[in-house]
Write a structure and sequence with these properties.
Helix content: 25-40%
Strand order of the largest sheet: 1-8-3-6
Distance between the termini: 34 Å
Structural class: alpha+beta
Shape: elongated
Number of strands: 11
Strand content: 15-25%
Order of helices and strands: HEEEEEEHEEHHHEHHEEH
Largest sheet: 4 strands, antiparallel
Number of helices: 8
Radius of gyration: 19 Å
């Protein structure tokens, strides 16, 4: 699904280093910003946020990654991680050593092509994240986040985060985010699945698009 789907038996024969299956609880850090890279991570389940510290010391969430995404892909070029990667939920990942990726990328056209696809997708996703979530009114930003976090399988549910995380994503104050989420719920556009969950049902998707 992620990187190795198109490889054949010969390609797999080039892998001599172990590929680790790892699990992280929500809130755990996969790596810190600026760390020397040991490998890249393919995300199997859960969600990961990428966090950067601004010049004035504030933390900003720059992207959210979901199953099928590659975490730390920039390490192939820089040998370091550009952001801190933090598990938003419980996650399971495969950690692939950099030398395995470099070896396969240099010897397998299939692997090289898949890497370029993932790189292009990551760049586009970063551009879309910036364009969709950092401009417009508070109402527009919160609605855009709800749309972006919809379940791709049905489009009728979405998973949101703590108000602090949402504020860091949208560059909004916690109180503003809470007010906008409450407004969407009051208007019947979204409905919480239960009090303990951050999963919401999207009841009126057409009205969500109009925000």
């Amino acid at each position: 699904m992620v990187l190795f789907a198109d490889l054949n038996e010969h390609d797999f024969g080039l892998i001599h280093a172990p590929i680790d299956d790892l699990e992280f609880k929500g809130g755990a850090s996969l790596y810190d910003e600026g760390d020397a890279a040991r490998g890249i991570f393919t995300l199997r389940t859960g969600m990961v946020k990428l966090v950067r510290v601004t010049a004035d010391g504030r933390k900003r969430i720059v992207r959210v990654l979901r199953p099928g995404d590659v975490v730390g892909l920039e390490a192939l070029a820089t040998q370091r991680y550009n952001s801190e990667a933090v598990a938003l939920t419980e996650v399971s990942v495969c950690r692939i050593p950099l030398d395995v990726i470099n070896r396969l990328g240099g010897s397998s056209l299939r692997m090289h092509h898949r890497l370029m696809q993932k790189w292009n997708f990551a760049l586009k996703d970063a551009d879309d994240w910036l364009a969709d979530l950092n401009f417009g009114t508070a109402t527009q930003r919160v609605a855009a986040l709800v749309r972006k976090m919809r379940n791709p399988l049905d489009g009728l549910t979405c998973t949101l985060f703590t108000r602090e995380d949402m504020g860091a994503m949208l560059n909004l104050k916690l109180e503003t985010v809470s007010r906008e989420i409450s407004k969407l719920a009051h208007e019947g556009i979204i409905e919480p699945a239960n009090k303990a969950s951050r999963i919401y049902f999207i009841r009126k998707p057409d009205l969500l698009l109009d925000r």
